[in-house]
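Technical note accompanying the year-one report. For the benefit of new consortium partners, we illustrate the data format agreed upon in the data management plan: each record pairs a sequence with a structure-token string. No post-processing was applied to the example shown here.
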Amino acid sequence: MSMIRGSAAAAPARMVLDEAATAEASARALGLAIPVFRPDRRREATMRLVMDGSPSMAVWLDMLDELRAVCERLGAFRDVQVHHLHRLPDGTPAVGNGPCPDTASRSGEQLRDPTGRALTMVVSDCAGPLWREGEAQRLLHRWAQCAPCVVVQPLPQRLWGRSWLPTERGTLARVDGAGGRLRFRPDRPPRAGRPTGGLVVPVLPPSAAALGAWARLVAGLGSGAVPAEVGRVLPGHPAAPAAAPRMARPPRELVRRFRSSASPRAVQLAVYLSATPLTLPVMRLVQRTMLPDSEPSDLAEVLLSGLLRRAGAPQQPAQQHLRQVRRLRVGQH
């Protein structure tokens, strides 16, 4: 069993009458009025939306705007702030006000809130360098020591295990008392090689149902435990082992691996992209035009597939790999 820490140093909150609890207590007292009070934390908390600035997250910028709009419409937060998490040249994490790394001028430690009144929602596919090097997990651990944190993972759940924040399944329940502390009970022992101990941070899909369930649990509005996926973060979270040098695989093998694991829409999108310049604006335009019912996750699958290489890399060009997708798709050999 693991604990998700909340704040232990929050200032006393204003108390308001809990009508439901008062009615229940009075009924048990045979009609004697027994007032029950609860902390009124409405509009005391700040929501911090932290967008991962890794290149693969560029396809999700629209989702960040949607999350911000939803949080503002709720009216439950005193303030909704948006930050972008970037990797400095020396490898340390920093936050800025925009998606451009040049805006990263503040240490990530500045988002650590000892009062416990700032909820942090990190939007990330957990596939970038900060996660591979363990820096993001260590920073998230420091944030989660003080106040509730959650990771919104935009990739399809079947791909979460490939990220640098793999998840384990279990149940979350709120601990009695203030601070939004949650207790996690895993369904099964952790897999070999996975982190153990540390703090667990809920990992959610970007759906209203999942976000609402987490918010109700943290606020103490739900009853009982809820199913959840969590990732573990350690104060000294290790970097991922360095990958062994690999021989360049033939394009046909890379394509077969992609087709065996990707969604059908991601494969179809790769076919269309094989005939276009591989810049993100053009790729998004092709997706909207040719596959209007597809999701950003389909483009993300292509970007993270291993078929693409940055311009100037010595490996075979991405265009050749994507043309192999098209040839295999239509049955050419």
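Partners are asked to follow this layout when depositing records. The chain has two domains: 2-12+41-233, 251-329.
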